[in-house]
Known about the structure:
CATH topology of the largest domain: Rossmann fold
Bound molecules: 5-S-methyl-1-O-phosphono-5-thio-D-ribulose
Number of helices: 12
CATH architecture of the largest domain: 3-Layer(aba) Sandwich
Amino acid sequence: MNIQGQHYRTLWLKPGNDRVVQIIDQRFLPHRFVIEDLATVDQVAVAIQEMHIRGAGLIGATAGFGMYIAALEACHGHSFEGHLQSAAQQLKATRPTAVNLAWAVDRQLAAIAKGASPEEKVTIAFATAQEIAEEDAAYCRRIGEHGLALIEAISRAKGGAPVHVLTHCNAGWLAFVDYGSATAPIYAAHDQGIAVHVWVDETRPRSQGAKLTAWELGQHGVPHTLIADNTGGHLMQHGMVDLVIVGTDRTTRTGDVANKIGTYLKALAAKDNNVPFYVALPSSSFDWEMRDGVAEIPIEERGSEEVKYAEGWLDGAQVEVLVAPESSPAANYGFDITPNRLVTGLITERGLCKANEEGILALFPEKSDTASSS
Ligand code: MRU
């Protein structure tokens, strides 16, 4: 995607030093564009845990490079296997909900195990990290192509009047290597000249909608309007939302969707107002082992200060201000589960499907025997 006319991905190898990965440090967006070097597993773990990078696809791709860095480190003064396993544990422990993290680490462990020598293992880890990142971008591009048909159809039905899409949090290119999941159909429609406008939920407490989605849509020239988190229901009641598209951090094989806290309430409002509610995801965000999202998906709980304080920029500096009474306790659940009955459909790299086991397995038949279908 473009930033002031220059093409960027969200992570890349440092020019001239392919032992170092560079990322856009998203904590400073939209006010400052900061690039950070990641050269050790510890730095990669901190970048994921403290959300220098975030979003399911990008967490996975960064962990993939983290395992490459672990293989490099393992060549120097460690038991190779011991260091690799402890790096895998360290990375997996950084954030619990996005399944792409464990998926990428496990994919690396399986690939690296095929190498006969430390040198060969490093070569494999390098290639696998690049594969994961390339695949992420390619799959998101395809999600855009498949999701475009939905927006096109609504645009035709409205005689070319703007299609109003509501999205929550940031499932944009900043949450992946490129394109995004929820935003990919929006970018594809906009690039084809279809009039599209996006309602952007601010997404408290970390404000990924206000800080990241609004910024990336603006960089791409997509018309959008930022709204407070509780506005979506009102807009839907007044016919001002044609379609909801969100991303996901983990979706069960039965189509239950974990996404940023507040997504469930948008799905309920969409159901009540007959607004189609779609979830866009690459296959790396499916958890093929899980069937019941509410019972099984781990929900991240973060510090109460994120709820009690608001963060922003003042006179060129990042500041935090206390909003709530200092002594009030606050709870901070990062994600919620939208049950499959509230999801109109899924948009994947292989096409659209119903949010149920039958629909999902019709697109991914190779996963039919990965969990018993009771
Ligand atoms: O906590 P984050 O910013 O990593 O969470 C990201 C989200 O929940 C996004 O909404 C997104 O839909 C899932 S990541 C593609």
